[in-house]
Records
---
Amino acid sequence: MQAWRVHRNGEPGEVMALEEADRPTPGEGQTLIKVRAANINFPDALLCRGHYQIRPPLPFTPGVEICGETEDGRRVIANPALPHGGLAEYVVADRAALLPAPEALDDAEAAALHIGYQTGWFGLHRRAGLKEGETLLVHAAAGGVGSAAVQLGKAAGATVIGVVGGAEKAAVARELGCDVVIDRRSEDIVAAVKEATGGRGADVVYDPVGGDAYAKSAKCVAFEGRIVIVGFASGDIPAPALNHALVKNYSIVGLHWGLYAVKDPASIVHCHETLTEYAAKGLIKPFISERVAFTDAANAVQRVADGTTTGRLVVLPPEVTR
């Protein structure tokens, strides 16, 4: 089969190589899956760089999220078992963790549903307790993680403020359903949030960026607001001033979605059932900005790493793109 493999750590565009490789062999409790679409996530770039919390042995294939077909013909969503990631024609995955792909979504959309939308749902509902009528501030609202949070916020009945960088991303955020869009390159985030909320601030902040985004969030979070820490795409991990949280009476909550698979796997299944219902009702639909040819996967991972993309980039296997 064909697979993209990484033999040394570095920038994705430099270290990913398209090669012929043997099909992976399923281990105990695993199954072989034919890849129908592979969604690119920021962790794929971190894997290439050697900066992810999991460091698979070299060589490995990136790709942590796919829609595929099992040997008995079922269409499923899966997280491939590294080092045999999803940027290949076949993967192996734990049989018990497979989820049915929603009928309302095509292969590319289904491939982009699992990690981003599960993270959003757990962050907004389990960690932040977002309520109907509250105001949700989403950083990187036009990106893969942010766009999912925007749609989930609207589905929950929240007013959604999206922060983006640039006019093109602002247009995408509006299309996704943001009630207010703030271009951080030309606008003062704190002033704009306070103006949009009548001075109250945002009830919930969804932050996959860190760095300056977190610093601005702490200045415009509402009384009894909640800042959800999802990741640090900026590369800058902030050091919160806890005295500030005490004085302003807001909460800082962390979200490590992958931990639910270990501590509460039933909650992931329940969340998937909810997301499937949302998709059937048209409340959510992954925004696929590009369906990428298999031969262009390395460049696509690099662009996600560089933060120049909007929505989701999904790689299609060779037989689909031929």
---
Amino acid sequence: MLTSTVLAARPDFHISAVNCRDDHTRWAPAEVRDDYRVVLVRRGRFRRQTAGIPAEVDRTMAYLGVPGEEERFAHPAGGGDECTSISLTPALWRVVAGEDARPARRSVYVGPRLDLAHRRVLASARTGDVDHAVTEELLGLLSATVGQAVDGAAPAGARAGRDEASLVAAAREAIGAAHPASEGLLPLAELLGVSPYRLSRSFTRELGVSLTRYRNRVRIGRALDRLDAGGESLAVLAADLGFSDQAHLCRTMREHLGHTPTALRRLLAPPSP
């Protein structure tokens, strides 16, 4: 039995938690998918066969799938397994792998750093900030996995375009002006004419903080302005500032300031005479 739960989704990608309870030792009937995929194991192990070549998949080995590829699975160990399956559109695959790139190998080694990157993607999915936090962590994970599988892989636009200082300045201007494209890493990168991978890396190198954290800094400043101005519904405030919900606003402000919006409102209130 196979179950799948979507953890985060946007038009360019879907991240799902997949649980499989099959325990058949023989190869199952062939399956053919129409998407690019990166699949990492969280628990258990199983076998995957493509082009007649079997491979063992467990927490130390991830695999990549491409459209039109025939694959078979077997679960001789039993006990079930749990995986994170990341489905990509061809456009996002080109961003990560480069134009017309196909993996030279289907399995990639999951070392400690890649394991941590996987866990960071799952943690970011729990924040609710799909357009920035999840996307930024996801691009790092995809670069590491696809980079192992595609010989000479370089994210599209990684070496082209404007210098980093002017790129980061343009991104800051768009975020500061609340440009609609600044609501997500992918549309912001498109607005600036660079790959999202390049934009994310440039931000960290130039400012020492991630683009996600910088954007949250700007949003927190706006939230403090409005809390300082008086009573306002936190749900309305969260929606106006682009948080997924009131809880997301509260988590973000507590992470950055150590206080909830309610506590901050009290701190900002004028002292009683």
